[in-house]
Amino acid sequence: MKPIRKFTVRAVIPAELGALEELAANLRWAWHEPTRRLFQHVDPGLWQASDHDPVAFLGEVDPARLAELAGDGGYVEWAERERAALREYLAEPRWFQSLGAETPRTIAYFSPEFGITAALPQYSGGLGILAGDHLKAASDLGVPIVGVGLFYKAGYFSQSISPDGWQQERYPVLDPDGLPLTLLRAPDGAPVQVTLALPDDRSLHARVWKAAVGRVPLLLLDTDIPTNSDELRSVTDRLYGGGGEHRLLQELLLGIGGARAVRAWTELSGCPAPDVFHMNEGHAGFLGLERIATYIGEGLTFAAALQLVRAGTVFTTHTPVPAGIDRFDRALVERYLSSSLLPGVDPADALALGVEPGADPATSAFNMAVMGLRLAQHANGVSKLHGEVTRRMFGDLWPGFDAEEVPITSITNGVHAPTWTDPALLGLAETRLGTGDTEHAEWRSPALADGEFWAVKRAMRQQLVDDARRRLVASWREQHSGAEPPKWVSQVLDPDTLTVGFARRVPTYKRLTLMLQDPDRLKAILTNPERPVQFVIAGKSHPADDEGKRLIQQLVQFAQQPELRERIVFLPDYDMSMAEKLYPGCDVWLNNPLRPLEACGTSGMKAAMNGALNLSILDGWWAEFAGDDFGWVIPSADAAGDAGERDALEAAALYDLLEHRVAPRYYERDGDGVPIEWVRRVRETLAVLAPELGADRMVREYVERLYRPAAEHFAVVAAESARGARELSSWGARVRAAWPGVQVAHVESGGIDAPHVGDELQLRAVVRLGELSPDDVRVEVVYGRSRADETIDAAQHADLEVADAAAQLSPGEHLYTGSLVLDRAGAFGYTVRVVPRHPLLLSTAELGLVAVAD
């Protein structure tokens, strides 16, 4: 019989154990092993069954056990020590506090999903896990971030696999009262609500849940409240659920409602208002329009408000293909962007921000990434290669500029080591290397013997085997109406066999089934009697992606063959809980996307943090960190005639590596059964590579390269009632209007008869500026090696100086002169160009205006 209503009743904890409630309320337990050990001691079996969720766990513990512990002075003292340690962690100065006064006061970090812990399932994949790791590292470093997202009543989805291998989705409903969340409340105790005006005189209301992620507050907006209609209560029903209008409502709520929630939070908490806003992908782009509306209400024009917003906004894109970007029908967006929703904002100005370059403004789709880039003066991709891809992908926003000048940088993602490093490896570092910091431990130290390290790695592999068997048994019972599974299900995998892991979302470009290109050859690798290999595979396909589901089905059906089912397994319902066992238990992490479509791919980073070697295409993070000691590179067949040939060539390379390089090295043992060379490489990976892969490195880079510059620039343009923003907007409007009259009329060079290295080339250029003055522009010579395709390679720039600003050759014309030294032999080319110049521009390409000599 089904209940008509469900809710969570919180446990009553003895007063002596009040520290447990305080510790459970802060999500630091998700990555702080001493706190997790404290809870585990209460009831180890129940702790495991609760998926390490203290809130749910305490609700299930036998009250008699709690009473017993309340009378145990040693345990009470232990709990108090951990509470004192948490309070110290929350209050003490950390890295950020050592940077001095020239730092952001608050950074608001917006993301559609956050992967903090399996107990708070508000994530679908890498974007959310990255956002969670970003907040955790910010907390550890003392960076004053506030996270902003949505609370999805059913999270993403739970995955099961039918007997024929087809993915099936379930959406278990979450009760926020049973999660580590509290409502944001006004001083009178009433829940804070934010409201968005919608068409047809409707209103969308949302309450605000708050999670404590260490030192970082995370605000999650929830529309499932009685003041909304049934239709609007479902706006935050599922992550990435529903059609275009449903998705648009979610993104309006995230951006506009999120900005309003931050404003309410700052007023209630007394924390400074953010001077930097960070959009983790384009889903939150509407926050810029909300901020523009606020500044218009303070007396700024749209153009000046846009300059002010841009100055303090950071935009991070994780998308390497246009198909991955949210695009909405223009008419639909126009219907929602009313003056009631955004007072003072002309809908035409707002709509123009989302128009795709080169498209008809009247018919262009509304592109969220394009809007994000137009609203942010600071933008980045998430690996060096992805930065290059992104500059080419969005280059049309800055026409006339080479990809190298497109103002999008890159900061390579990182992973939060305390979250993802297995406790067994942490224990080894503590006992043998004298540190709890696995990310920076000296893993090559002779204090740790190879044999001892290998024994711990085997235990981690055994842990994965046990977890996989448990999950497969549960899956069998679910598929077969509770029937007992056959014996082989509980015998899959072997803790002494080379274990390859592959787990991620399942879009087609990640090529889940590349390994199946030659089924017979894969079978031979898996069942090699002397050097067997086993695969542990997991991943979810988007519910609407039938092609991805077919890939899963193909893999599952292959793995069901009797001779292979103990050597290759697909684990359903990939989530953080599974990942915590999967990464540590693998010896090799496989990644074979279509290069360059993997923006970063942090799963391989997590595996490396746990002593695994990578076997990967040179894409994402691996393209910049690959090394012989860290794994193997699968060659890319970029020159293949078609996709089928490319897959066949790259699959063959994968098989060759497994057969002739990976497996032989793994099974090469000394007299004690230890693979000495393998262990050396793993220890080198932990000692050298792991520190580069950490989220602390990533967040430091964001602070130093994006957050601080954004805060400094915002302070400049906001000073004196936004004087800088007003000046820059009016100057920009004047320059754009006059730019059609700017032209490089004539260029001549001299001083060289037969060019040699070291010679000086003299240049003269006549430039027509029309209504602009020399103060408005920079005239440059662009030079470098001339390529066969008539482009300049590795271009360098040198300014030309106006010969006499007061003297004009004819009305609007000026003479510019200068020289450059020929510093290299070979083909050489140069041109002269004119670009706008203003002290508040951060990039030559910022306005997308350039005039180049014909």
From TrEMBL:
InterPro entries linked: Agluc_phsphrylas (IPR011834), Glyco_trans_35 (IPR000811), Glycogen/Maltodextrin_Phosph (IPR052182), Glycogen_phosphorylase_DUF3417 (IPR024517), Pyridoxal_P_attach_site (IPR035090)
GO molecular function: glycogen phosphorylase activity; pyridoxal phosphate binding
Modified residues (N6-(pyridoxal phosphate)lysine): 606
Catalytic activity, reaction form: [(1->4)-alpha-D-glucosyl](n) + phosphate = [(1->4)-alpha-D-glucosyl](n-1) + alpha-D-glucose 1-phosphate
Keyword match Transferase: yes
One GO term (biological process): carbohydrate metabolic process
EC number: 2.4.1.1
Domain DUF3417: 13-120
Purpose of the protein: Phosphorylase is an important allosteric enzyme in carbohydrate metabolism. Enzymes from different sources differ in their regulatory mechanisms and in their natural substrates. However, all known phosphorylases share catalytic and structural properties.
Protein family membership: Belongs to the glycogen phosphorylase family.
This protein's name: glycogen phosphorylase
Organism of provenance: Agromyces cerinus subsp. cerinus
